What does this fold into?
Amino acid sequence: MRKHFIFIVGCLWGGTVLSQPRLTAFFIEGDPSIQETVDQVKRELMGALSQASEVEVLPILRVIKPSEILILPVVSTTFREAYSAMEEKRFAEARGFFKKAITIALAQPERANFGQIFDAYVAWAVASIQDGDEEEARAALRALAKLAPNYVLPKDLPPVFKREFERAKHSANKLPRGSISIETPEGALVFLNGQPVGIAPVVLPNLPRGTHYISMEGDHFDIRFGQVVELRSAQAQVRGILKKTVIRLPPNYVADPALTPFLDAEALDRLEPLAENLGAAFVLVGFIKELEPGYFNLSMTLFHAQRRCFLSLAPIGFSKNLVGKSFLGKRVSDAIMQRVRLADKEKPASLPLDWRARGAIEYSSLRD
It folds into this structure.
């Protein structure tokens, strides 16, 4: 099985042109089975860069996922209080905290983590049973069935929960139906109750009448719109206006650009605000692929923030026993410095850059 890991290196410039551009690096989550090798490559690369007289290396920045910073702090706090009460068997308090957390979260569907909400409905039902209120447990499962009929209950729950959830889904299927028409903004990704359902404009048919939660996402994770829709008749309409969600990152964190091995115009869109946030002139994106046990291929490209394009670098093959001997770090560092020097003159790479399909160095050339 082929394994991979992506990393990014940002080349930071201060407010004025510096003779020594500053460098920082962070890794995007990858296959944990090659984490040790990736960490060694990162340390070796940063060590080599710190020896280069042309650059100043900064501490590695930490990545935070959009879902972690979209959620309102009061929601996170209330969920923590709910689960803490559950662990301490304060079931009456837990019921109240779960109801409160779900209500606050659903009030702003554009910022809600629906997976967390669905799990909370189940926990609310469990707390209600433990507190002796079976009817409230059924109400929680009915609400879950309407929002997420395909939700899979945890396997360790008693069979009675699964029976009640099936009954709740059966009841939801008998409700009168209607549709929701999403008319604007054109091109936005539309979510119904946390699930992606298409690109606006779109009509969502055959929905059970009642409360639904519509959210939309623009080109970047912080460009959003949300609305609570009461479907009371055969049809409801939503006319949304995307707006930027004000998000404050914790100190020393940057937002995860959610890159994949397939780099296209959308990848440029994701890197542009990242570079702007960092004050980065360049972002080096690398992709490490394990071709066979102990043998790897490193593909690289340089995002040029000012020109808004990718500049390709030659792939580098290496075996695990070369890592830690300074050879690999020096080779990659030299390639980065050479590309930075010529960045304004290089021809942009053609998009998309699909590292899943790019030819890797032959195994024989990787062996020592």
